[in-house]
Amino acid sequence: MWVLSPGLWAELLAEQGLVVDQIDVLTAHERDTPLSCTLIQAHCRLAPSSVEQ
After folding, report:
1. Which domain holds residue 26?
2. How many domains does the chain have?
3. What pTM, to 2 d.p., does this model score?
4. What CA–CA distances, in Å, run from 8 to 3, 31, 49?
5. Nearest CA to 36 among 23, 19, 47, 20?
6. In angstroms, rounded to a whole number, what is the distance separating the alpha carbons of residues 26 and 12?
7. Residue 37 placed within a domain
8. How far apart, in whole angstroms, are the C-alpha atoms of residue 6 and residue 1?
9. Burial status of residue 15 (CB atoms within 10 A of its CB: 0-12, 13-18, 19 or more)
10. pLDDT tens column, 2-52
């Protein structure tokens, strides 16, 4: 099994035009449970033509 690091997630999302605000890796409370979930908060960049002047 492979897992993407938070930094790699940020790079991949940036390549798709998203700006990452925050990345949190949530893990299970029990030490013997190998479960984790990556929670990513991101937004789209504003296109130059959509910025109000």
Report:
1. 6-44
2. 1
3. 0.70
4. 10, 25, 29
5. 23
6. 20
7. yes
8. 16
9. exposed
10. 789 999 999 999 999 999 999 999 998 888 888 889 999 999 987 666 555
